[in-house]
C-alpha cells in the first residue's frame, strides 16, 4: 500500500518532561494541544498530542521520565509495529485511522 500525500501521520515519541515539551511545541512553535491525558490513561503513561486542528498529522508525546524504550501505548503494538530509528526514537507504523 502506497500512502497518499494526505494520509494521516502520527509521530509518537517519549518525552522526559511533558510540561517543558508543551512550552516548546505550543508556546514556542505555535502548535495547538489536540489531546492530553494524565498517567491514568491506557498504558499508564501521560501523553500530549499537539499539531494543527484538521491537519493530517500530529505529534504524540508520551511521558517517559525513566527513558524506557518499549512501546509506551498498548495500541502501538496492537495496531501496528514499533521500530527504533537510528537515534533510538520509536517509530510506530499503523493501519489504524482516527478522525
Provide structural commentary:
This protein is an alpha+beta fold. It has a single domain, classed as 2,3-Dihydroxybiphenyl 1,2-Dioxygenase, domain 1 (Roll), CATH 3.10.180.10. 17% of the residues lie in helices and 35% in strands. The protein contains 2 helices and 6 strands. It has helices at 18-28, 74-79, and strands at residues 9-15, 32-37, 47-51, 57-63, 80-84, 90-94. The strands form 2 sheets. It has a 4-stranded mixed β-sheet, with helices on one face. The protein is globular and about 35 Å long. The two termini are 20 Å apart. The model has no long low-confidence stretch (mean pLDDT 80).
Shape: globular
How far is it from the N-terminal to the C-terminal residue, by CA? 20 Å
Name the CATH homologous superfamily.
2,3-Dihydroxybiphenyl 1,2-Dioxygenase, domain 1
| Total number of helices | 2
Mean of residue pLDDT?
A: 80
The beta-strand count equals 6
State the domain count: 1
Order of strands in the sheet with the most strands? 1-4-3-2
What is the CATH class designation? Alpha Beta
Question: Helical amount among residues, as a percent range?
Answer: 10-25%
CATH architecture: Roll
- Sheet with the most strands, sense and barrel status: 4 strands, mixed
Uncertain residue ranges: none
Structural class: alpha+beta
Amino acid at each position: 500500500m502506497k500512502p497518499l500525500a494526505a494520509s494521516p501521520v502520527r509521530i509518537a515519541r517519549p518525552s522526559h518532561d511533558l510540561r517543558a515539551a508543551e512550552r516548546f511545541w505550543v508556546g514556542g512553535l505555535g502548535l495547538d494541544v489536540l489531546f492530553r491525558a494524565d498517567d491514568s490513561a491506557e498504558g499508564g503513561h501521560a501523553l500530549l498530542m499537539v499539531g494543527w486542528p484538521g491537519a493530517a498529522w500530529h505529534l504524540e508525546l508520551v511521558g517517559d521520565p525513566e527513558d524506557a524504550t518499549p512501546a509506551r501505548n498498548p495500541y502501538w503494538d496492537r495496531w501496528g509495529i514499533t521500530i527504533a530509528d537510528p537515534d533510538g526514537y520509536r517509530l510506530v507504523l499503523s493501519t489504524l485511522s482516527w478522525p
